[in-house]
Amino acid sequence: MNQNRKLYALGAFFSAAGLVGSFWQLLDKLTLLKHPGANLSCNLNSVFDCGRVLTSHQYEVFGFPNAIIALVMFTFFLTFSLAGLGGRLTKQFTLSALGLALFMLGFINWFVFESIFRIHAMCLFCTVVGPSILIITALLLRLNQPYMSKWVQKAMSRGADIFVWILMLVFWVSMTAIKLG
User: 89-103, pLDDT tens digit by residue?
Assistant: First the structure.
């Protein structure tokens, strides 16, 4: 299996994981709408308290549950990855997918910040959705590497991008542990 096919296969796996996490999160949000104060499957303790997160105004920043955005985006990324496994995709399409992934990465970073510092709780599903979008963005960056500047290509060939992704993940985990633990 060539390198791009491996990246598309990983993209499909993490897209499916994000899709499952988003769907489950939406089901819990619907449960809360039907039965306010319900004991959710993702309410583990005071740190992982989905109920608090799902009822916050940050969870409906665009007027509807964030899980709907995630469902649409992970469906797109899954379709993109499966199409990539099936054949060659255009430069414009892969760059557009990277742009969407970067938007989602920015959105999840904002939401993680809000969860930790404003809501003071994490949603268990964010521990699936966040890393999934981080990995999908990393994979899309790798798939778009030929379209990047020579400087970026050289840095990526030395693993600079992987270092940045690991730092971001470590930051999320450490901030959660420090602030909420």
Answer: 999 999 999 999 999
Domains of the chain: 3-180 (1.20.1440.130)
Could you give the CA distance from residue 106 to residue 133 in angstroms, rounded to a whole number?
A: 10
Question: CA–CA separation, 176 vs 181, rounded Å?
Answer: 7
Closest to 99 in 3D by CA, of 140, 66, 131, 130 = 140
Region 58-86: mean pLDDT is 96
- Residues 8, 84: contact at Cβ < 8 Å? yes
**Euclidean distance between CA atoms 98 and 144, whole angstroms:** 8
pLDDT at 141: 92
Strands (E), the chain: none
